[in-house]
Specification:
Jelly Rolls; three-stranded mixed sheet; 9 helices; alpha+beta; eleven-stranded mixed sheet; Phage tail protein beta-alpha-beta fold
């Protein structure tokens, strides 16, 4: 259940901030998003905690709309500043903040619309077993939908990250017919599991539309929406966009430490470390460019992020500034004069 402070916060987010958040969501759906637009969007998010809170809600909601007819698609295709776009944004704002029940969903909680959905809130992890025996572990802030039919076993990763441990299709064992492929769909393409254990991550729109996969057993085929098929073998990982595979490297088991409630860093830039921490807490965790490349090494329990930040402040030349419960800034340490 959301606490009293959370409910009070939800009820006072100004309507104009909600509309601004939806407008930014629409802008970022455009086929051409400039660096200037992204910079302006980031500045808007950082300018007030209400902005960040509203953005988190509409971004999670947008994942639920992927592949469905919606005002989001209509708004993104209409000319900027047109009356039709203004009407579409108004409809989206009502859908998200009134019809969607976003503001009573609880802190960081994704909501499920279909019986097959599995979700985790911010800071929550969950393990489930699907009807075919496939195991799914969901990282913080993740959501999937499941659609098994006579021809395929399809899992859509709507948001976040999952670990998949495949199981043989029980239909084959029962002599019902040919084995159905196990497929994982993201916004950038479809993965086909080949007797495997692997992770899949769907990055958000702020990270320029990509997914990643790391293979720990077996193999996985990557089929980007418009790119060429690529197969990853055990021990490999890759990122991919709609147009193709963009990076192939070595898979690292330490990257799955979230399954044990940990984060493992080895000479990780501070800005990347904070980005990973930010996946496990509600609000905005920003990093001053002046300290962004400081290196972080160690194993940290995610149960107490405040303690992690306190440790970093003791071991690195940084100050951690807490503006509100939802807005923390990490910057260079100010020397006493």
């Amino acid at each position: 259940m959301p606490d009293t402070e959370e409910i009070a916060r939800d009820s006072v987010v100004p309507p104009d901030v909600r509309r601004q958040a939806v407008n930014w969501l629409v802008e970022l759906q455009s086929d051409i998003v400039t660096d200037e637009t992204r910079d302006q969007w980031q500045k808007w998010r950082m300018s007030h905690p209400d902005h960040e809170y509203a953005w988190q809600q509409v971004e999670v909601f947008s994942r639920k709309l992927r592949g469905l007819p919606s005002p989001l698609a209509h708004a993104a295709l209409t000319p900027p500043h047109s009356s039709s776009r203004r009407r579409a944004i108004k409809a989206l704002t009502v859908l998200i903040f009134l019809g969607g029940g976003t503001w009573v969903a609880g802190e960081g909680r994704l909501w499920c619309w279909w019986p097959e959905d599995y979700c985790t809130g911010i800071g929550e992890h969950r393990a489930v077993t699907l009807s075919d025996g496939t195991g799914i572990e969901l990282n913080s802030g993740s959501a999937i939908t499941v659609n098994f039919d006579d021809t395929r076993r399809l899992i859509r990763l709507m948001n976040g990250e999952i670990m998949v441990t495949t199981a043989p299709d029980p239909r084959l064992a029962n002599g019902i017919g040919a084995a159905r492929p196990l497929l994982i769909e993201t916004a950038q393409g479809i993965l086909r599991a080949i007797g495997t254990r692997f992770t899949v991550r769907q990055f958000d729109v702020s990270q320029q539309g990509k997914s990643s996969v790391a293979v720990f057993e077996g193999a996985v085929e990557i089929q980007p929406i418009t790119g060429r098929l690529r197969q990853l073998e055990v021990g490999q990982q890759a990122a991919f966009t709609r147009d193709g595979v963009i990076a192939v490297g070595m898979a690292c088991e330490a990257d799955t430490a979230w399954r044990q409630g940990m984060i493992v860093a080895r000479d990780m830039p501070l800005i990347d470390f904070l980005a990973e921490l930010g996946r496990h807490r509600s609000g905005w965790l920003s990093c001053d460019p002046a300290v962004a490349q400081l290196k972080v090494t160690g194993t940290y329990p995610l149960a107490d992020i405040g303690k992690i930040l306190a440790i970093l402040q003791k071991t690195l030349p940084i100050d951690v500034q807490l503006f509100t419960r939802y807005w923390i800034r990490v910057g260079a340490r100010q020397e006493d004069t």
